[in-house]
# Entry
Amino acid sequence: MKIPELRIADLVAKFPIIQGGMAIRISMAPLAAAVAEEGGIGLIAGSGLSVEELIEEIREARRRTKGIIGVNIMFAVREFAQLVHAAFEEKIDLLVSGAGFSRDMFSWGKEKGIPVVPIVSTAKLAKLSEKLGAAAVIVEGTEAGGHLGTDRSIHEILPEVISAVTIPVIGAGGVTDGQGVAEMLKLGADGVQMGTRFALSEESGAGQKWKAEMLKAKEEDIVIIHSPVGLPGRGIRSPFTQALEANVNLRPKVCNLCLKHCEGNFCIMNRLVKAQEGDIQEGLIFSGAMIHKINEVRSVHDIFKDIKEGIEQA
# Structure
């Protein structure tokens, strides 16, 4: 199978791969730049960063590569607008956003000439996004890690979205290798977003204990939790997720007001940070459904090499 380019507005990625923007310092400048250097699109995750930290990460990524660098900012975070405007002032190449839906971001992007790419899970929302000015859409199925907008498989949703819009469609959820990329492209996707595979890269900002726990995970270790964001989330079973299942009171005593709207059942940022810092017992690790297919941490260069070989063989 010939490997196609991915075109989003005036951007042309030589390799049709977008690296997922994984929050809490996993998708930072080193990872995004490494992906961009390989010809893909690298994303810095702005959620959980201050405006100043995001600006520094964008500048650091620019120092490392001349490739395509975008940011992913969850609509659910309280400083969404401030983070987006800061990224636009830094002339980021594109904005990706999920965990909610902002109409304003399309007009902001148009003003600055920066493509906006929402994460959607239905053909209806994809059509609305195109109408509002989206340059492309990322379609996530239930196989994805982190916050989920559907319980339907990407293989069901993707053809519906492709039929509903004329802008580029990027498939996401459950892809860990070249064979998975090839399958998504054969379904008609213009590109593929991959998160979990790049979380387990050498350039990922994830902590060593976090990565080790991911590598140990089996298919039966995947669980769905209810996030304070108001969405289900896919992660790895831990004492913390078991406490959630048992309805233990985990409401935080102190609130940092990190979300626009929080259900308060636990502090999502705090639990993600705990896991990232090595507290696997009390922390939360988000993961895609196919984590069991990944058995080692590799460099981004080697990951791309394997993906390329897998696509070509397919």
